[in-house]
Design brief:
There is one protein chain. Helix content is 66%, strand content 0%. The N and C termini lie far apart (31 Å). The chain is built from 6 helices and no strands. The protein is mainly α. 24% of the residues are buried.
């Protein structure tokens, strides 16, 4: 299973976001994000949840999968995205992930 820090780096790279943007989004330094992505530092659970939401993953899928599952896709120019935009993207992702989870639960119940 890939280490958490490897998954986080892959997710950030796939999203097209820079470490500085992620650092600002989380309220930490770019150096801290760099160290997280090399396994030298750890995120809090809240920070981790914020990141996986931003990247379009559920926390459960992120924690349990050997290969990172397919995220929710957004089209945006990563260089032009503001911090407010990142918060909206994360909020929308969380809504979609929760909706998908509820759909799966209902399908299993009615199954």
């Amino acid at each position: 299973m890939a280490a958490i820090y490897e998954k986080l780096k892959l997710m950030r790279e796939q999203s097209g976001l820079r470490q500085g943007q992620i650092a600002e989004y989380l309220g930490v330094t770019q150096t801290f994000i760099s160290k997280v992505e090399t396994g030298e530092r750890n995120l809090t659970v809240a920070q981790l949840e914020n990141l996986v939401n931003l990247y379009g993953y559920s926390l459960a899928a992120f924690a349990n999968e050997d290969v990172v599952a397919r995220p929710i896709q957004f089209a945006y120019r990563a260089q032009e995205v503001s911090q407010a935009d990142l918060k909206v993207i994360a909020d929308i992702s969380k809504i979609v992930i929760n909706s998908q989870f509820m759909t799966e639960v209902l399908e299993e119940t009615n199954g």
